[in-house]
Specification:
Shape: globular
Number of strands: 24
Structural class: alpha/beta
Number of helices: 11
Bound molecules: flavin-adenine dinucleotide
Strand order of the largest sheet: 3-2-1-7-20-19
Oligomer: single chain
Strand content: 15-25%
Distance between the termini: 58 Å
Radius of gyration: 22 Å
Amino acid sequence: MRLPRVVIVGAGFGGLAAASALGGSPVEVTLVDRENFHTFTPLLYQVATSGLAPDDIAPNVRGIVQRHANVEARMATVEGVDLEARHVLLDRGPSIPYDHLVLAAGTVSSDFGIPGVARHAWPLKTLDDAVRLRSTVLRRFEEAHADPSRVDDGTLSFVVAGGGPTGVELCGALAELFDNVLAKDFKRLDVSRARVVLVEMSDHLLGPFSSASRHEARVQLELRGVEVRTGARITSVSADGVTLDNGSTIAARTVVWATGVKANPLGASLGLPTTHRGELEVGSDLTVGGRPEISVIGDLAAAGPRAGEAYPQLAPVAIQGGRYTARRILDVESGRASRPFRYVDKGIMATIGRRSAVAELPFGIRIGGTLGWLSWLGLHLVSLIGFRNRAVVLVDWSWNYMTWDRGNRVILEPAGDR
Ligand SMILES: Cc1cc2nc3c(=O)[nH]c(=O)nc-3n(C[C@H](O)[C@H](O)[C@H](O)COP(=O)(O)OP(=O)(O)OC[C@H]3O[C@@H](n4cnc5c(N)ncnc54)[C@H](O)[C@@H]3O)c2cc1C
């Protein structure tokens, strides 16, 4: 008798959790991703700032699932789904039939329609983005070294848009990279003239955090020399910098778009119910459109505890959704009833830099400073997939901490037109 076929689209946090939870069960799983690696997004900013190498945070998908005899990885881009024939359509090779489909394709960068963002700003969403950004930052210093007069035109000015955890973490890491490493690399350049400017539309950084954590983040960033501009909206981006809603401009050759993602357009292309933001509207069992054979998890799903409330777009939500969906599929196959999905919130964290992080845990517990930083390091280390990655990251972090160095300063990309 043929085993039920489960196709999972996306080997991100949600898809991998579902595939791993189905490992060893009486189902045949195909895990499809356009990349051959899983991206550990919380550490992308460390790749962009030379703290970690790309491979350290991107384990190979085949390597992750190879221990499960019933899970097969497939590298391909999913271009659509034939809902009636129950086939997933790929950009290469034959389509894949399914009995259960799990959609976990996440989000893509969004420019919110702001002029110049798509052309001139650097996104930080994928591993490729992080490597390109690292090369751009290092190249700007090379350009300023070759012609110091270029510092005046913003060559050493870096604007980061978005004061959420990614923007805060990136700004702290950039400031530390400049002060602790590049100032020594570029001895004849006045690196103290390099600027990191964080622009946030709302009145405070770290929106979902308490006011104490927001305040701590701001103080710590400013201590590192980051210029924090809250209550300022970027209205356009050009090759020379950004314009703000009050009409002022900031000259900067490098603008990083650390804000704004939108649902992967694959979701809306399927003809299933979506929100106005393009996420698929799921029920309490994470299935969509009255089709019990199709589940949506992670950032692509509009799921929440109650109607009108949404779970945050975080890795733990995707992971828990993946595990829940794996259990539900096995329940369906064995005729058992399933309970609704419920996200268990274990807290949120953001790091600002060396010995500085904020963490908000359940029951109103808040930690900051060195203790917050150690908790952040520990949690991210154990969350990384694979012993090798954990060991390499631990060595790199220990090296960076003891020597104040960043060992991954390779310029890989050709010079672009930005
Ligand atoms: C820079 C950054 C930092 C973040 N930091 C944190 C953090 O510190 N803590 C936290 O909890 N969350 C963080 N997040 C959010 C977190 O990454 C997401 O909530 C989480 O990744 C969602 O998981 P997912 O499985 O839905 O999607 P993803 O993990 O994004 O995975 C989607 C997968 O689908 C694949 N894919 C997409 N389209 C296709 C297609 N058409 N065909 C085949 N494959 C496809 C992609 O290659 C990807 O592997 C961060 C996000 C970013 C961008």
